[in-house]
Amino acid sequence: MKVMKFGGTSVGKPERMHSIAELITKESEPAIVVLSALSGTTNALVEISKNLAENERNVAKQNIDKLEQHYETFIEGLLKTPEANKKAHLAIGEHFEFLNIILKISFSEALNKDILAQGELMSTKLFSAYLDEAGIGHALLPALDFMQIDAHEEPQIGNIKVKLSQLVAQHKDKKIFITQGYICRNSKGEVDNLKRGGSDYSASLIAGAINASVCEIWTDISGMHNNDPRVVKKTVAIDQLSFDEAAELAYFGAKILHPASIWPAQHYNIPVRLLNTMEPEAKGTLITEEAGSVGVKAVAAKDGIVAIKIKSSRMLLAYGFLRKIFEVFEKYRTSIDMITTSEVAVSLTIDSKDNLEDILQELEPFGTVEVDENQTIVSIVGNEIVQTPEVMKLLFDSISNIPVRMVSYGGSKHNISLLIPGEFKTLTLQVLNKGLFGL
Ligand code: ASP
Ligand code: MG
């Protein structure tokens, strides 16, 4: 059994849904097909939720109506027969009825999660309606019946395994199973989600749970590229990555894959393939335990980084200083990405400003605190690059004109990270593209 996950753009147009139906019916192996919401839907739902939280009910209503219109048009393009059309309108209608009821009741965090879940619930229903119309046998497995997280938002893999195999076993005659990415139940049994972009994570968890032969992530680009195609002109797809390399790239900004989606695949040793729905023959990127080759594979950038420097002479020859500093970040559940130290100062970065004020206040007693916002982490990722002197030379030659604020080297064998002011991101990615890849 394999897992095939299709992202928002792969289901975002009726003709795209038609082509993914073609793709999955070509498969000889049974498949669990994980779908995202139609592109733009989750953003629209976030907006509606925000309107409601701010008590802007009129604006929320307008946004709900706009979204409904989009689905009405979508159905017209998706289905041919009047019966199928009618069924789909009714099915989608229920979700808009729900959103319209929510308009009238008071907003809560639990409701917010319910609103956000509507996208995947609708995309899977529409796809299932299309498969029905085309006479393609399949079963719809509700993710809310098996995907579960605990009180720390960690997936309960044991439970997922048991429940999912029970569900699959109920449909012995079927080869195609459709389910929702992103959505799950939390420890209280409420509807919840795996965070934005979380459908990849769903796919990988499902792949681990059923011991899939492969976890295919279908998007609109042919695999992971060596650099950000939105920033530099020429990029190439990477043939092969190790799980470690892929995790570093996903975490440090490569948008194609949700960072958390690597560990389940790695833990259960399931190969992951990144493929392109628009170009299904393209090889894409294979991610396994093997790196394939040595050397630099890719660079990625993560924006919106805050750098914090704590300078104190008390740090000199002292022990326990770093622990006290880290405790402040732990208290505010804020993870630290990069860190460098000297004898009298420590610089570190965080990627969220959520608790910045509180954190800074608590750091004050430890020394002079300096903050730089709008920084970018540029990561250079590749198998064993840290042990390759030529890479170092090429890297530092390329960035000689970039005002690098921090360097992280040796934390892992596969990653060298630079912190630069955000406005230098484009230039940095360009010079690295030339210097490291000759592109
Ligand atoms: N629909 C969700 C989002 O847009 C989950 C996903 O697509 O992966 O974040
Ligand atoms: Mg995605």
In a few lines, what is going on in this structure?
This protein is of the alpha/beta class. The chain is about 40% helix and about 25% strand.
Architecture overview:
The protein has 439 residues and is of the alpha/beta class. It folds into 2 domains: 2-220, Acetylglutamate kinase-like (Carbamate kinase, 3-Layer(aba) Sandwich), CATH 3.40.1160; 297-437, VC0802-like (2-Layer Sandwich), CATH 3.30.2130. Helix content is 41%, strand content 23%. It has 14 helices and 16 strands. The chain has an 8-stranded mixed beta sheet, with helices on both faces. A 6-stranded antiparallel beta sheet has the order 12-13-11-14-16-15. Strands 5-6 form a two-stranded antiparallel sheet. A hairpin with an 8-residue loop joins strand 9 and strand 10. The longest helix is centred in the first third of the chain and has 25 residues, at 109-133. The model has no long low-confidence stretch (mean pLDDT 95). The structure holds aspartic acid (ASP) and magnesium ion (MG).
